[in-house]
TrEMBL record:
SMART domains: S_TKc (SM00220). Residues 325-346 are annotated as: Disordered. It comes from the Eukaryota. Pfam families: Pkinase. Keywords: ATP-binding, Kinase, Nucleotide-binding, Transferase. GO terms for cellular component: autophagosome; cytosol; membrane; phagophore assembly site. It comes from Streblomastix strix. This is Protein kinase domain-containing protein.
Length: 371
């Protein structure tokens, strides 16, 4: 749910959850990070207690999530946009890890997309800190959490030791999925997922990933041994982001937006952060709008199809009712039956219902016709 605040002149999102299921760690992570502003982490504003529910106010993101990109493989995503999406995500989790937190549920659905009004650019927003945990140096987390296809191999082993490396693996899966539109391992349940991962030594390179340098980075993020798995800081220093080829793969729009931001800073704009002026971090809004437009078209088509299906079902139901009424009318005529009359004993009053309910067989008959 999104809400407009006339005092702050901005929209914010309200997350509604049952009070007894709320983990204060989610707020601990967000509030500790408020002192270290980062445009790639979703900001939390506070909690409204309306028992038995809690309303958690957070920053509103206006361009859906990374899932909107993964859904449409036919729409081209330029390499410079993909690289900027990945760079923003790694920078966001780097700051998160710097504060000794583990997110625990990185996935496409938890990486929001937001374009400030008139900015022409898009920021990713790592969100949903419900599984976030503070690192305990004396007693590391001993239980697995997350979304199955994004969970790293060590989460399926015993004893379970959860470190920040689970987030790196999950980001690797996220961007693997963004390119291939599938998961390297996606079994039907937790147990089968663990068995499949146990049989593997590594994730195989898919044919869809043509760039050798990109695959080198992803393979380091998807390393099965968490002790050998790359960190967020190390990933940001990988040649995929720092090589001459990467620096040359910048669009004119990215350069233009970076230049405008530098000018704004020189004119005294205080909201600007260092990454805002770095063209390699910039995502052109128009590149993401292509996916949003297609998504909105598909949503409307599905709604139209559903409406047509509902109309057809309603007509079938009405037709069946009319047939039953006609059948009842003919039966009454044959039996010389009159509504609201006494039976032969004169004791029982009979009343014909105006409406006729359908039994399960009738409903099944209609459903089979429509299937």
């Amino acid at each position: 749910m999104d809400v407009y605040n006339p005092v702050l002149d901005c929209e914010f999102a309200l997350k509604i959850i049952q009070k007894d299921k709320f983990d204060l760690i989610e707020m601990d992570a967000s509030f500790e990070l408020r002192g270290k502003p980062n445009q790639f982490l979703n900001e939390y504003y506070g909690i409204i207690d309306e028992s038995p529910f809690l309303f958690v106010a957070m920053q509103f993101a206006n361009m859906k999530t990374l899932s909107v990109i993964s859904k449409y493989p036919r729409i081209h995503l330029p390499s410079y946009t993909f690289r900027a999406l990945m760079k923003q995500t790694l920078e966001g989790i780097r700051v998160f890890h710097e504060e000794n937190f583990i997110h625990g549920d990185i996935k496409c659905d938890n990486i929001l997309l937001h374009s400030p009004l008139g900015s022409g650019r898009v920021y990713i927003k790592i969100s949903d800190f419900g599984f976030a945990k503070k690192i305990d140096q004396k007693n590391e987390q001993q239980y697995a959490a997350g979304t199955r296809p994004y969970m790293s191999p060590e989460l399926f082993q015993k004893p379970v030791i959860v470190t920040q490396k689970v987030d790196i693996y999950a980001i690797g899966i996220t961007f693997y999925h963004l390119i291939t539109h599938k998961y390297p391992v996606n079994e039907r349940n937790f147990k089968d997922q663990g068995k499949k991962l146990a049989k593997l030594k590594s994730i195989d390179r898919p044919s869809e990933i043509k760039n050798d340098i990109l695959w080198d980075l992803l393979s380091k993020m998807l390393e099965f041994d968490p002790n050998k798995r790359i960190t967020a800081s190390e990933a940001l220093q990988h040649p995929y982001f720092t090589s001459p080829e990467a620096k040359a793969d910048i669009s004119l729009k990215q350069k233009e937006l970076a230049y405008l931001t530098i000018c704004a800073q020189q004119n005294g704009q205080l909201w600007i952060q260092e990454n805002d002026m770095n063209s390699s971090f910039i995502i052109d809004e128009q590149e993401i709008q292509k996916f949003l437009i297609e998504d909105n078209i598909q949503i409307k088509l599905k709604q139209q199809q559903q409406n047509e299906q509902d109309d057809k079902l309603a007509k079938e139901i009405q037709l069946l009712k009319e047939k039953k009424k006609e059948k009842q009318r003919k039966f009454n005529e044959q039996e010389d039956y009159l509504p609201n009359k006494y039976d032969s004993q004169g004791d029982n009053f009979i009343e014909v219902e105006n409406d006729i309910e359908m039994n399960e067989d009738d409903q099944l008959e209609i459903a089979l016709k429509l299937s």
